[in-house]
Structure formats: C-alpha cells, structure tokens
C-alpha cells in the first residue's frame, strides 16, 4: 500500500471535446468549431502538462452517432491528434485508442511506434474490441462478428503487435562510417507470428524510442477482457464508484497479473474520476446544474442509448428501460462495469428512462466529486492511500474551465499532501508511471 509520502499517484486526463457535460460548449463564448479541432486538445494537454499530469488520453469512436448533431465529438483519429499534441508539449504522455477489430497489426504497430518515436518515448496504445453493427458497416462488414471471435482476434492481434515491437534489439543504430554499417549486425530480426486469424512475417520499420516500446492500456471488464489485461496491460481503466469495490477490483487484477507470471506492480489501475469544482460545495453544485441544464435530455438519452447499443427510438422518458433489448445487447456487456449498478437500480425500482437519467446527472458512472478543491483532493488521496487505485483517469465536466481549476487548486493540495509529484522526474511515459524502461527482446508473450 502506498505510504503517506509516496508521490506515485498517477493523473491522466481524458480528452473529451468540451468536457463530460455534452452541452458545455454552449456556455463557452469561443467559436464552437474549436471543440472538434486539434487546437482544443493541445490547449487541454498543455494545461495537463502544467499540472504535471502523467498523460492525456484520447478515445475513439469509429462510427457516426446521431447525438453528434448536438455536441462536439472526437472527429480525428487519435494518433493524428496526439502527434499534433506531441509537437506542442514536452513531457506529458500520449495515450491513443485503436481497435483490434478493424485494424491490421503491422500498420497499427507502426502508427503507435511512430508516435512513440517522435515524442521521445511518451506513447501508449489503448486497445479496444469494437462491438456494434454501425462501426462494422464502415469496414466492409454487414454486422459485427460475435464477441468470442472478436476477443480471439484481439488476443492474436496483441501478440502480433508485441512481436513486431520486440523484433528490435536495444540501441540498434551503429552509424559506423568506417564499415558503412548503419544498423548493428543482428539489431533487427523478422517478426514471425502465426495465428489462426492473424499472420505477420516481416521487419518493423520504426526504431525503438527511449522507453523501449509503447505502453499498453486496456479497459475491458468482461472475463476475457480481464484475462487479456492481466497478461498484457501496463495500465487498466476501471469504473468502480465505491472505495471498497475499488480495493477488491485492484486486488483481483493484481492477483491475475501475478498468476500470469507478472510483477503486479507493473500494472497500474486507473478508475475514472468525474469532477466539478467550486469555491464552496454549493457553488460547485450550481456550476454542475448549469452544465446539466445546457445539455438537452435528448442528447443525454442518445448518449445513454449508444452506451447500451440500442437505438434511441426504443427509449421513452416516461417509460421503463427496454430490458428485453438490453439483455440481448453485446455492447451493454462491454459497458457492464460502468452501468450494471445503474441498471440494477432501474430494474429493482421500475424506473423510467427519465428517472434513470436523473440519477446519472453527471453523464457517467465514475468516482464523482462535485465540491471544493479540498473535497476533490481528499477523495483522490483516500482512494490512493487505501490501495483502491494507482491514480485516476480524470473526466472534467467542462474543458478548459474545470480542468484549469483542477490544475490551479487541486494539484497543489495533492502535492502538499505528499501523494503527487512536484515535477516530472523523467522524460518517458514509463518513467512517469514508475515503470522501468522496457528491455527489448524480453517481452514476447506466451499464452
């Protein structure tokens, strides 16, 4: 368990366009197009770097959603946006999402390692398994393949990407002008991966960064997702909302990592953390109310329906949730760790969709604090010192306004409390996470 002067708390910023509150853009006087631009992401990342955050995280949605008519969305592919951020920052880590369902291991490995190379070792790949028929139709398929098949592909995909990254030896460039050898002999060998679904036989093109290879981040909560995280992930995003549940889940993941032959300390667990800040708790609640009122019910309902993988037309504000459709939805299971508690309450109390949304006023099921900087810092510190989290993936209600308040008022409290570092001690994301540089050639996976 971390000690009272352990400054190893990790803070990631989730780069949500405009913030978690979908209507926050309406309360900002800038050109609304700002919120889908790379300039918005750069601004947020620079704020995070000023606050000494270890990383920023950009998720991806590979399909249009009708809710996007009403709020900003993640328009760019993450690794393009993160490259723009890399050019305008110096230390903060860069975590991007890409799907194992609709990519090729060779191209994906090259994209991620390219970001890692140009950022001098600050990159990570958040690997996801994509469900839903709408994304599938963007990739020459009529419908998504069954969940078990998606995970079978993901397992091979991860092994193939890692085989490509591990094909390099450390310090491969000799640059011997006398002999003409640019690479050291034996510095690169073909990646040979042969699976049932994926085959890779070739040399990667991008040489390794100072951190060895990019980090791997994962958020799946299904049984197979947890097993894959235990075997491969350097960091795991989780969705527990109660401290005791956080301790239980972190111990579960660490135990599974140990069973997979890993040191549990090499895997960091980062629950989501939703925050609204005010000088007083009443001021924070009023700020939250304004942000909520700026988000139409139709927008929040559409977002909720998307998470459940059910057409929004099946929901009615004055009727109970369509549990028959929810039971059949694969996406509802992929979001299970975030939504199960809410769905259980809805079923138990026969709540209407409107009542469910009222329970979920912050639009997310994460650790939540709507209050003063002291209250926010207390909750973060309590979870960290109790061993319920290695850090948090921060969801600010409004960006940049709430984010700026967090950096200016919460970070100094965490530093004064001895749980968060005063400055970056290294340059790579592995160093920021308290992980040793990865020694290439030692990380090939076994199943």
Describe the structure.
The strands form 3 sheets. The protein has an 8-stranded parallel barrel with strand order 1-2-3-4-9-10-11-13, surrounded by 8 helices. Mean pLDDT is 91; it is low at 332-337. The two termini are 30 Å apart. It contains 16 helices and 13 strands. It is of the alpha/beta class and 447 residues long. InterPro entries: Diverse_substr_monoxygenases, Luciferase-like_dom, Luciferase-like_sf, NTA_MOA.
Number of helices, where a helix is a run of at least 4 consecutive DSSP H or I residues: 16
Task: Please identify the oligomeric state.
Answer: single chain
- Kindly report how far apart the N and C termini lie: 30 Å
Strand order across the biggest sheet?
A: 1-2-3-4-9-10-11-13
Unreliable runs = 332-337
Helix and strand composition category: alpha/beta
Count of individual beta strands: 13
Mean pLDDT: 91
Morphology: globular
Main pleated-sheet profile? 8 strands, parallel, barrel
Radius of gyration: 22 Å
Share in β-strands: 5-15%
Q: Output the helix-strand order.
A: EHEHEHEHHEEEEEHEHEHHHHHHEHEHH
User: Which percent range fits the helix content?
Assistant: 40-55%
GO molecular function: monooxygenase activity
EC number: 1.14.-.-
Domain Luciferase-like: 39-388
Family: Belongs to the NtaA/SnaA/DszA monooxygenase family.
Notable traits:
447 residues, alpha/beta, two-stranded antiparallel sheet, 13 strands, 40% helix, FMN, Luciferase-like_sf, NtaA/DmoA family FMN-dependent monooxygenase
């Amino acid at each position: 368990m971390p000690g009272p002067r352990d400054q190893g708390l990790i803070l990631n910023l989730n780069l949500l366009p405009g913030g978690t509150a979908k209507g926050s853009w309406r309360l900002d006087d800038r050109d609304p197009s700002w919120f889908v631009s790379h300039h918005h992401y750069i601004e947020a990342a620079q704020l995070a770097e000023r606050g000494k955050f270890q990383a920023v995280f950009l998720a991806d949605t590979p399909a249009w959603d009708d809710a996007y008519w009403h709020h900003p969305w993640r328009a760019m592919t993450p690794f393009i946006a993160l490259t723009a951020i890399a050019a305008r920052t110096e230390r903060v880590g860069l975590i991007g999402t890409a799907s194992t369902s609709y990519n090729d291991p060779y191209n994906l490995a090259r994209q991620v390692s390219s970001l890692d190379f140009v950022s001098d070792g600050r990159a990570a790949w958040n690997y996801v398994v994509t469900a839903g028929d709408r994304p599938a139709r963007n990739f020459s398929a009529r419908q998504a393949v069954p969940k078990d098949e998606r995970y079978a592909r993901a397992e091979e995909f991860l092994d193939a990407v890692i085989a490509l990254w591990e094909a390099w030896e450390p310090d491969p460039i000799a640059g011997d002008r006398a002999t003409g050898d640019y690479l050291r002999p034996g510095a690169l060998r073909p990646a040979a991966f042969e699976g049932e679904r994926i085959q890779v036989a070739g040399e990667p093109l991008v040489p390794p960064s100072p951190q060895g290879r990019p980090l791997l981040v994962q958020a799946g909560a299904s049984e197979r997702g947890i097993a894959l995280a235990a075997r491969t992930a350097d960091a795991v995003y989780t969705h527990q909302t109660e401290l005791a549940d956080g301790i239980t889940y972190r111990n579960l993941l660490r135990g599974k990592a140990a069973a997979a032959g890993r040191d549990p300390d090499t895997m960091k667990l980062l629950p989501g953390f939703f925050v609204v800040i005010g000088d007083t708790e009443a001021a924070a609640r009023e700020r939250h109310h304004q942000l909520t009122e700026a988000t139409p019910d139709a927008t929040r309902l559409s977002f909720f329906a998307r998470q459940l993988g059910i057409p929004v037309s099946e929901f009615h504000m004055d009727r109970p949730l369509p549990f028959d459709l929810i039971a059949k939805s694969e996406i509802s299971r992929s979001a299970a760790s975030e939504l199960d508690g809410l769905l259980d309450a809805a079923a138990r109390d026969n709540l209407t969709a409107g009542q469910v949304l009222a329970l979920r006023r912050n639009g997310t099921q994460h650790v939540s604090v709507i209050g003063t900087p002291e209250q926010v810092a207390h909750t973060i510190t309590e979870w960290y010192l109790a061993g319920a989290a290695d850090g948090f993936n921060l969801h600010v209600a409004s960006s940049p306004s709430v984010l700026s308040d967090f950096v200016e008022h919460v970070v100094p409290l965490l530093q004064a409390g001895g749980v968060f570092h005063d400055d970056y001690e290294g340059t790579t994301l592995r160093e920021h996470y308290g992980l040793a540089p990865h020694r290439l050639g030692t990380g090939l996976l076994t199943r």
